[in-house]
Amino acid sequence: MNISVISIGNEVIQGRIDDTNGTYISKKIFESGLNLLLRIQVPDREKEIRESIDFALNKSDVVFLIGGLGGTSDDITKEVVAKHFNRGLFLDEEILNKIKKYFESIGKKMPELNRKVAYVIEGGKTIENRIGFAPGIELNLGNKRIFLLPGMREEFIELVNRIFEEMKGEKKNTGTFKLFGITECDVQKKLEDLFSKEINDYVFYYPSFKGLTIKIIAEKKEIFERVMDKFKDEFKEYIYSDDESEIEKVLGEKLKEKGFTIAVAESVTGGLISNLITDVPGSSEYFKGGVVSYSNEAKIDILNVKKKDIESFGAVSEDVAREMAEGVKEIFNADIGISTTGIAGPSGGSKEKPVGLVYIGCSIKDKTEVFRYVFKEPRLRIKMNASCAAIFNVIKRLE
């Protein structure tokens, strides 16, 4: 089955937002054993939308149109599609009542623009939007199908996941690993050395500041199992998850397994570690609290870092990272204390202590270790990478 995806919106084609919905559905298509033939981006203009539909339908069995189902004047996807296939639009009273009830519940009158959202295409199948208002719409055109989907991220994902529960191609074996501390290039080179360049037909890479997500996909079970086993063995020191779990969720699961609590002392990361940890529902079960000790005074007065050590070694040093981790653990009476101190730049570095230098302290029970990193990236990426490095090191110590 050949599938094409058309993302509609001036903000997409102008680069004002990334086409994350297009990326999400592309992965979904591939992992479902289907063939993604085209990804097209067009502005909110009738001519381009109609031309893209014809072009995609000529080559594909299924076409997904993303965006343009809202109530504003530039949301024209439904109207253009209806006109293109000589269909009418009619008001779905059930959807309209749902919208009205929402506004009544918050003590407001429904803006008239929202009435537009409740119109659907004649002869189309309405797919309920369980999160928002604008429904998905499916049109059957003989042996071809078109899906219209809202562009709001959460709504889009929920609808796509339901659609693909029944839209399956040839079943493929799929595995996931999440790694930290190794680059895509290093993984690829190692795999090519172990197997051959043909391994690239089965391994797919998705880098982010949280590390590297690896998807291993193969139709033949014996190939899949061989690659999975070898991968696990070769990269075990970098793997923190063998499913889709985010790094902060993995940390929470490890802490609950051990019955441990954790506290955080942050300097260079400015609170990002605490933010990540508390993004996980139920994190109050194991997260005792955190201190953003950005100044030397805060390190000394709150965390009990020795003033003479800061004067002797500097705030960005192994000694200070160690004392910060131990200090925050003691203050919060936690089982684990982690700390970060470093130079995020763009200024403030030196030959001995370059921009991107980060020390991470990890104190678990009676043992404290300090890890040194140099991240050669912009300021925000340094902070984000350092946050994930701190969490990663705790996970590996708890394995």
TrEMBL record:
Domain MoaB/Mog: 4-171
SUPFAM superfamilies for the chain: CinA-like, Molybdenum cofactor biosynthesis proteins
Pfam families linked: CinA, CinA_KH, MoCF_biosynth
NCBIfam families: cinA_nterm, PncC_domain
Similarity-based family: Belongs to the CinA family.
Entries under HAMAP family matching the protein: CinA_B
Protein name: CinA-like protein
Taxonomic source organism: candidate division WOR-3 bacterium
